[in-house]
Amino acid sequence: MTTREPLSCSGECPAEELLRLLAGRWKAQIFRQAVEGPVRFNGLLRQLKGSTKQSLSLALRELCDAGLLTKTVIKIKPLHIEYTLSERGEAVVPVFRRLEQVRP
After folding, report:
1. Domain edges within the chain
2. Domain 14-101 has what CATH class?
């Protein structure tokens, strides 16, 4: 009997890291919207059916903490906040696109 070595990316696998960062409720959907352009909280709340203010706020905070999104306060009337992809977020877009192409 032979044993097979598990596939390992030894910490260098971008797909594995992206999956870990996007794990959780709403994160992948938020990231996908941010790929298309800047997103705002209320817009996301309307687009993501079933989301709540609390769950959306948590997901946005975690994406910002992971360095995938940048939070920008727009100081014109009315004051609002936009979330855009950071440099790190832009760097993982090709990996995200490739993962979207994989269908079971």
Report:
1. 14-101
2. mainly alpha
* Distance between CA atoms of residues 1 and 16, nearest Å: 29
Residue with tokens 């910002």: 64
pLDDT per residue as tens digits for the range 14-26: 677 777 888 888 9
Whole-structure pTM value: 0.78
Say how far apart CA 33 and CA 69 lie, in whole Å.
Answer: 11
3-state SS record for 9-77: CCCCCHHHHHHHHHCCCCHHHHHHHHHHCCEEHHHHHHHCCCCCHHHHHHHHHHHHHCCCEEEEEECCC
